[in-house]
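Open question from group meeting: does this chain pack into something compact, or does most of it stay loose? Before anyone orders reagents, we agreed to write out a predicted structure and look at it together. Recording both the input and the output here so the notebook holds the full record.
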Amino acid sequence: MVISAEPDALEVDPAQVALLIIDMQRDFLEPGGFGESLGNDVSRLAAAVPPCRAVLDAARRAGLLVVHTREGHRPDLSDAPRAKVERGAPALRIGAQGPMGRILIRGEPGHDIVPALAPAPGEPVIDKPDKGAFYQTDLDLVLKNRGIDTLLVCGVTTEVCVNTTVREANDRGYRCVVLADGCASYFPAFHEAGLAMIKAQGGIFGWVSTSEAVLTALAGRPPRAAALQAAEMVS
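Structure tokens returned:
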């Protein structure tokens, strides 16, 4: 199938494609969570949920591998580096009691994925201790065991965990197609800059597309450019 994207369209084998949904967690996206307690407008992140859900449903229908990630730490913080734990106000640091349980601690309510994007039985959930989904996880093994070479990437935030994961994936030889409307940031300028860096210089880290383009490709319809060209040939 062919996915319309920037800097150019990408032809992929659906059998080698996985959908990677990054850190769509309650603490980041929901009112009353950790993200909002820091003064952020969580509605900017919540806007990515419907596009993610549409692609998730389509990926499941198409039989694609779906992988979810969550950022969080062990309750004793033994996997959390000091530089990360000591960042920010003491009352809002990792492990502190937050509106949805202890902040970024595995098993706490805020650590879980939002209900609209909840993993289905059998879908791998990668619990990662930092920004990148490949760092100290078995994600690479999960993907290689399924013969995956291309990732459809969505999630939050664009400039942090999404960008870090895409760069890690690029270094490991994976092709990444980032869905612009399926990603989000608390800072719109960071979102735009994060996408621009991925597709710059001929796609130095990957491709940028949209949920609509991926839905079109998964449904077997020609991309918009191909459809226009076909119409011109007929006329």
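Observations to bring back to the group:
The chain is about 35% helix and 20% strand.
Strands lie at 2-3, 10-11, 17-22, 65-71, 97-98, 101-102, 125-128, 150-156, 175-184, 207-209.
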